[in-house]
Every structure is written in C-alpha cells, then in structure tokens.
Design brief:
By secondary structure, the protein is of the alpha/beta class. It has a single domain (5-126), classed as Vaccinia Virus protein VP39 (Rossmann fold), CATH 3.40.50.150. Helix content is 20%, strand content 36%. It contains 4 helices and 5 strands. The chain has helices at 5-10, 52-58, 77-80, 88-97; strands at residues 19-22, 40-46, 59-70, 100-112, 115-126. It has a 5-stranded mixed sheet. A hairpin with a 2-residue loop joins strand 4 (100-112) and strand 5. The model has no long low-confidence stretch (mean pLDDT 87).
Length: 132
C-alpha cells in the first residue's frame, strides 16, 4: 500500500489523547490505548466494521476517525461479505453526509499471487472544537 496505517495513527498521538480502537481481536495496535468511555480524541478502525453515526457520536468536536478497509474488489471480498461497490468513491460521500470533513483519502490495488488486493484509507475530522 502507498501508506502505513499505524504510522498515520501514531502521528495523532499526544500525551492525554483518548483513543478507541476498533479492529480484529488479537490485533496488536502497537501503541497505548485509553479504553474508557467516550468522548474520544481519536477512533481507529483497522479492517473491521463500524457504524459511522456511532463513531461520530463517540468523538470529541475536533476529534478524528482513521479507518483502513478491505475494498469490494479484493480477492477476499465475497468471503468477507463485502459488496463489489465498497470502495473509497462510495464511502467518502457518506462521511461528508455524516458531518465529517475528510482530510485524507486514498485507495490502492495490487496484484498478488492470491488475487487482487484492494484497500482504502480515510481520515476524517469531526467538525467543531479544537483538533486533538
């Protein structure tokens, strides 16, 4: 991929940053998390489902949501239950409609011996307040 999710996530961390991690069980997020109830400065979601309205409600004004997802063109998409049109082009407008401002978005396709690898990443900020 043209980006490193964990490096991007670490760039948001400051002393006192409250983080919620949504991801596969057993996945080492590689940095300390604050699992208390919201509101959070940062919500991270790595290849896991999420409810956009719920994420928005968990963030502080000025907080950020960073997600990396497997796209619908991925060789494993059908096994994961992803629609073929699950991609950045169709997800980005949903973030805007939910009240986020999109500050970074990218997707990548790579041929691998297992088939096509399709992922996208999106960083969105909750409007209002001071960023974390």
């Amino acid at each position: 991929m043209r980006w490193d999710f964990w490096q991007r996530a670490q760039a948001f961390l400051r002393p006192g940053t409250r983080v919620l991690f949504l991801g596969p069980k057993g996945k080492d997020p590689r940095f300390p998390l604050a699992p208390e109830d919201g509101p959070f400065d940062l919500v991270l979601c790595y290849h896991a489902p999420f409810d956009l309205a719920q994420v928005y409600s968990l963030l502080k004004p000025g907080g950020f949501f960073l997600t990396q997802q497997t796209g619908g063109s991925d060789a494993q998409a059908a096994r994961l239950g992803l629609a073929p049109d699950y991609n950045l082009e169709n997800q980005k407008p949903l973030f805007l409609q939910a009240g986020f401002r999109v500050v970074y978005a990218n997707q990548d396709y790579m041929d691998t011996e297992d088939g096509l690898c399709h992922c996208f990443i999106l960083t969105a900020g909750k409007k209002g307040g001071r960023p974390c």
